Amino acid sequence: MSSMAEIQPLREPDQAPDRIPLEEVYMRMAEELAKRSTCARLQVGTVITTPDLTQVLGIGYNGNARGLPNRCDTTTPGSCGCLHSEQNALIKAGAGLPGKVMFVSASPCVMCAKMAINANVARVYYRVAYRDPAGLDVLSQGGVDVVHYDRWRDSWR
Q1: How far is Cα 60 from Cα 62, in angstroms, rounded to an integer?
Q2: I need a labelling partner for 3 at 20 to 30 A (CA). Which of 24, 36, 82, 134 fits?
Q3: How far apart are CA 132 and CA 12, in angstroms?
Q4: Alpha helix locations (H) across the chain?
Q5: Which residue from 32, 137, 47 is spatially nearest to 101, judged by alpha carbons?
Q6: How far apart are CA 17 and CA 11, in angstroms?
Q7: DSSP category for residue 54
């Protein structure tokens, strides 16, 4: 069995790189996936990659389960019945591979943070903060590197 590439330390260039960073590519992919969401309250997209950012392991967006109607079960906030984008992506990415990197358009809730920890996610990049920041605290407590990522949001457009 080959050893998996280790997650790279965060880099903070003094000036804009010559080309779009992979972190920004995956974050934009998560934002595009969010547009497929059928959730009436908040559309969220997620991309999970290998530690070296060379392979996409899973993608997801929030919505109902496969085969069920493409709409929320109820209009009650927090109880719409939609699977979260992180849940959908983690199901596809599998739990065994260590050091996964997650890119999510809105920071995870507490339950998705716990799932990410148990699925061996090592770093989470998020674009905007979810209304309840408790998920970010859970990720940090679980040893996950958390990055609020919006530095290159308006570049390479």
Answers
A1: 7
A2: 24
A3: 27
A4: 22-34, 85-93, 110-118, 134-141
A5: 47
A6: 11
A7: -
| Token pair belonging to 156 | 């390479």
Per-residue pLDDT of the chain (157 residues; tens, 9 = 90+): 344 456 666 666 667 788 999 999 999 999 999 999 988 889 999 999 999 999 999 999 999 888 888 888 888 877 888 899 999 999 999 888 999 999 999 999 999 999 999 999 999 999 999 989 999 999 999 999 999 999 888 887 7
Tokens of 100: 């996964």
pTM of the shown model: 0.87
The residues near 18 (Cβ < 8 Å, ≥ 6 apart) are none
Tell me the β-bridge partners of 47.
59, 103
Q: How far is CA 95 from the centre of its chain?
A: 15
* Residue 120 amino acid letter: N
**DSSP-derived 3-state class of residue 141:** helix
Tokens of 128: 């905007």
